[in-house]
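Example record

Each entry pairs one chain with its bound ligand, iron/sulfur cluster.
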Amino acid sequence: MTSRRVFILQSVIGTSALASGMAMAAPMVDEKDTAAMGLGYAADSSKVDAKKQPKHAAGNSCANCALYQGKAGAASGPCPLFAGKEVTAKGWCSAWAKKA
Ligand code: SF4
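Structure tokens for the complex follow.
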């Protein structure tokens, strides 16, 4: 390969890596989304209405849910139930499952 070709390839690879590193965070789940409403999702677990959500228990939140994929200490992270969006670490929904 000529050095010019190598340079172009390295530039393309470098630009791709930069672009993926700068990827924007996914949008947050809106409590009023159809899927969110169906699961009783609340962005703040402490505001869940216990009468409407009898499965909710104090202290349960996305951060300590088995399905939560956010990093420890992060304010939000992905959840497979809301593909392409993020839930708040302090959120909750009726599919909450205890982290093993
Ligand atoms: S399944 Fe777990 S992580 Fe996902 S929204 Fe419900 S409580 Fe949060």
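Residues 12-21 have pLDDT under 50 and may be disordered.
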